[in-house]
Amino acid sequence: MGDRIKAGMIGLGQMGSPLAGRLLQQRVPLIAYDLNPEALLKVVEKGAEPADSPVDVADQCDVLMTVLPNGPHVESVAIGDRGILTTRNRKLMWLEMSTIDPQVTKSVSSKCRAKDIPLLDASIGGLTVDAEAGRLLFMVGGSPENFEEAEAFLVPLGRCVHCGPVGSGVTMKLINNQLAGVTLAATIEALLIGRKAGLTFADMQQVLSGTAANNAHLHRAIPERVIKRDFENGFSMNLMVKDAGLALDLAQRVGVPQSLGSLVQEYRQKALDHDWGEKDTTIIAKVFEGLAGVDLAFEE
Do the Cβ atoms of 138 and 125 come closer than 8 Å? Predict the structure, then answer.
């Protein structure tokens, strides 16, 4: 790909918008589309060109990115009279970044092959602050040749790991989120024991960080979210429940029991029962705190 490739973005939600902003900051020409006119306007004000349909984006860009809520949304922008697959652009590469069922990814990829459009699933690891800083991790499924092209384009956004053929990237994302979610719950439970027994977070963090119990939540989610009681504007519990549900569905298909994953999903449902779906996923701490009768708002 040339140095002045033009990018396209469909889906300007929680992650799509900061991705678009990062590309524009790096002076990458960008054409954007979203059903939400307010979301589109925010990106246009930063320098993107607006489009009026998915095919309008596809016709004008070299690399197309989609960051959408779920599988049906991806299918809807792919097919139809104004869908991506109606484009006549034969230089297009599609990077599908949504967290969806890998079966949907493979199905859409098959339709793309019939149109000679290479599709890679480039699932996103990281938070919006990582997108803004170009520190994301992309888990990519696709051919080695297409991966090289995609990796060269994604340099301003973060690093890439080639996970295998199409569908492998989003599969990796699902197991990553499943493990991260269970680890968060286990970490909160352990800290609550120490909290109620009189230990400080500083001491627990210092000791646990030097053992096999160490994990990223001890250094980011717990001190920055849970202890500070900041549950706004993060990775929502609604999205976590959706992603974990996809992981559980995948596990069932391949025949792998998910006793821990299923149990943690039940606790997430309790958070939804409290109308905490739009809160950051760390709001699950309040579910465990309610059961323990103590919170993690340490006074050091």
Answer: yes
Report how many domains make up the chain. 2
Residue 300 lies in a domain: no
Question: In the predicted model, what is the mean pLDDT of residues 57-71?
Answer: 97
pLDDT digits (tens, 9 = 90+) for 118-132: 999 999 999 899 999
Nearest to 39 by CA among 16, 23, 58, 61: 16
Q: Which residues are catalytic?
A: 173
Q: Which of 143, 165, 187 is the last residue of a domain?
A: 165
**Tens of pLDDT, residues 2-31:** 457 999 999 999 899 999 999 999 999 999
Residues 33 and 114 in one domain: yes
Last residue of a domain, one of 130, 165, 200: 165
Q: What is the pTM of this model?
A: 0.94
Domain that holds residue 82: 7-165
DSSP-H helix ranges across the chain: 16-25, 37-44, 54-60, 71-78, 102-114, 128-133, 144-154, 168-196, 201-208, 221, 237-254, 259-273, 284-292
Which residue from 299, 300, 293, 287 is spatially nearest to 188, judged by alpha carbons? 287
- The pLDDT assigned to 3 comes to 56
